[in-house]
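Supplementary Methods. Inverse-folding protocol.

Structures were first reduced to a discrete structure-token string of length 264. This string, shown here, constituted the complete conditioning input.
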């Protein structure tokens, strides 16, 4: 939907995403989705000649000096749909690629962030399709801000049906207190100063880190900001080059949302 030039948001539209929207258009190829989901370079025993196909893909990427970007964030940069930023600079709407400590991965959008005294993000909340597959079916609240107990503070669950309790995806103090806050890799719960959150503060038990939450913590994180959104004012690290920052400034149409979690 994001990359369909029609701008439609209804259920009836057959969406046709494109890479560019200038005088000519180029359809976003199926290769993007395969890379985005992380299986472009994986041999599939159910697909004829899969090993040969994967070998040819690897050879093509290596010959052209391309990074094997089979990752939700890296593939988005590869197709020039967005630009890489330091994970300490993320804001609502940025795309993140998560490697969990248990070895699994997830693609998500940032919902809210909390920053430390250096204005570097120390923990964040994300919005994504949340749930799990079991016994040939999918279970969970679906698209939601990651929260304990199937987002019970936000969504009722009865007789296999999920029903929202109120308008979701709008700033609400319940997101501060009843959703998960995930520490960035290398940050621990003790590093996050709860008294610097907007009141009410989240409980310490909702700050997810590796020492306290093991496999459910973030081990690695990559971040992308979509073209059209302003680059960080004072970027951390070197993920955002001067050239990219200049271009992002030129193409800027929208400013990033101010973190709701930060105390006034």
């Amino acid at each position: 939907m994001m990359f369909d030039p029609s701008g439609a948001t209804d259920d009836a539209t057959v969406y046709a995403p494109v890479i560019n929207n200038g005088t000519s258009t180029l359809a976003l190829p199926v290769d993007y989705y395969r890379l985005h989901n992380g299986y472009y370079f994986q041999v599939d025993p159910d697909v004829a000649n899969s090993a040969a196909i994967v070998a040819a893909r690897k050879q093509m990427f290596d010959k052209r000096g391309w990074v094997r970007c089979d990752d939700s964030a890296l593939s988005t940069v590869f197709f020039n749909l967005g630009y890489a930023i330091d994970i300490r600079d993320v804001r609502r709407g940025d795309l993140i690629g998560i490697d969990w400590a248990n070895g699994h991965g997830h693609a998500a959008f940032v919902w809210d962030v909390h920053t430390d005294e250096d204005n570097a993000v120390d923990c964040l909340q994300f919005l994504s399709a949340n749930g799990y597959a079991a016994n040939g079916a999918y279970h969970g609240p679906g698209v939601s801000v990651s929260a304990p107990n199937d987002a019970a503070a936000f969504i009722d669950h009865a007789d296999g049906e999920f029903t929202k309790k109120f308008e979701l995806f709008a700033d609400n103090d319940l997101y501060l207190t009843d959703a998960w806050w995930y520490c960035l890799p290398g940050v621990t719960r003790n590093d996050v100063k709860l008294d610097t959150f907007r009141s009410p503060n989240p409980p310490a038990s909702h700050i997810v880190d590796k020492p306290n939450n093991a496999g459910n913590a973030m081990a690695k994180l990559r971040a992308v900001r979509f073209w059209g959104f302003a680059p960080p004012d004072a970027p951390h690290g070197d993920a955002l080059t001067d050239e990219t920052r200049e271009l992002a400034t030129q193409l800027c149409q929208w400013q990033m949302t101010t973190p709701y979690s930060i105390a006034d």
